[in-house]
Batch of 2 targets.
Target 1
Amino acid sequence: MSDALSISECPYGICIWKFGWYRGLFVPCRVISVRDFLMHTDEQGRTLSCLMTHEFIIYRKDMVVTMKEKLEKIKAEAIRQINMSDALDKLNDVRVNFLGKKGELTAVLKSMKEVAPEDRPKVGQLVNEAREEIERVLEEAKAGMEKKLREAKMKAEVIDVTLPAQKNSVGHRHPNTIALEEVERIFIGMGYEVVEGPEIEKDYYNFEALNIPADHPAKDEQDTFYINGDILLRTQTSGVQVHEMEKGRLPIRMIAPGRVFRADEVDATHSPSFHQIEGLVIDKNITFADLKGTLAEFAKELFGEGTKVKFRPHHFPFTEPSAEMDVSCFKCGGSGCRFCKGEGWIEILGCGMVHPKVLKMCHIDPEEYTGFAFGVGLERIALLKYEIDDMRLLYENDIRFLKQF
Ligand SMILES: [Zn+2]
């Protein structure tokens, strides 16, 4: 810069520096210190000289061109990186690297102080144009990438709208349930109460209170599921009757439907778990005639108006006298058919007058009160009513079978 000392203008014509007495207000970009004499002519024509240190402020005239080239390079690099990006987070990296606070465009703006003031708007505009261009390409790439992602997702979750809709399958009442509701309806209509009890029962309620002492053969026959010596899975719902009698609220008119358990092998007519409906009536002056009348009415309601009943003597420990009731075959009306095995009658339930010993054990005076009880297998009714010949069908839960009822 030694040449510059003899002249007052930039010797290269690219700077706008001046020197002399003038100390301008330019923002310095490159400061050159010069120590020398300077000769000046002031306005009055006097020659002045001084030894001084000048600080020159040099703006490069070519800064606009340089900046433009630099911006073009940044822009090209940004677009190159954008085009190479294959994921949204990579695009975001490009955005941060070029447009962010510490990005390359911001760095260009920071070097603005090197640009002559009159050129700054031009450079500012160039920077803005570059920023807008990069942003536009970024947005396009992002939109394209999002679209691709969406399409890939849609492809992955293909929905064939031509497939038939999946129908909601509506539940269906089990034949056992239908039969139970029918029996309950009949007895509720006759003023009976429906009572339920525990499936896990004490030996006392299942056997002893029903006049089946420990050494009674019935206890062996039934081959019970014992939980321990005293607690078992009930073999009959009769225990519910004992619970009701013990409450001491008389008279009683109840039916006790529920699941019972016996150690039977599974076959067409046996299952280790099945259902019973037991009935109990205790009141003053209850006789066998009440039993017959009630059960005859029940049979008519269940199997049809023309149904006849027949009682055969039988033995149950908890009733005396005891009987089994048959109904006239509702298929052939009693003349005999394949359904009733030619007999004209179908065995339907066991019944009898409550044994005085049972009443006594439940603290009911057998001299004052009498009663009758009956028990019917729920499955037996369902099988008869729907002419199902294999009990196992009721437990297999085959929808195709169950849907028929
Ligand atoms: Zn018949």
Target 2
Amino acid sequence: MSALSCKDLRARGEESGMPIFDPLSRATSLTLLALGLAGLAACGADAADPAPPLKPVAAGDAARGLRLLTQYQCGSCHAIPGVPAARGIHGPTLQAFGKRSYIAGRVPNFPETLAQWMVAPASLVPDTPMPSMGVSPEDARHMAAYLGQLE
Ligand code: HEC
């Protein structure tokens, strides 16, 4: 049984008229299939037929991030350990940012959310005083990697 894929099980269920493996209507299944979610929707956590792996998010490069933090002049508003001349006081210090639970006190601090914050802070906290800095998503990933390892 365990060697059978989820698809096999569903096909058998359909042949024998058993509805147990396909509680969804055929049309819904096809729609989900088109979305690449069929495995998940029909089988849940069936280990014999795992859902396709999520696309991995490439980790940023902290060394590049350090250079970019200088280039974008984040230090005009923030104190950032390791970044030359980053002594700004308009924004909060980014010291030990890797240990912070929240960005701006409100958004959980994960590499993805931190990168998103740098690209468009107001998309996460609409009334934030931090301006959009014209940061590309790729540059943001690298800077998030640098800030994320500050302890
Ligand atoms: C014009 C000043 C200014 C510049 C330039 C600026 N920021 Fe900010 N930043 C702020 C302010 C003000 C806040 C506080 C926002 C809030 O609490 O909503 C902030 C918040 C942050 C936070 C969250 C801090 C915390 O304590 O949770 C991070 C991370 C951050 N900025 C990164 C950057 C990065 C990276 C750059 C450069 C790409 C940058 N900032 C450029 C003003 C600035």
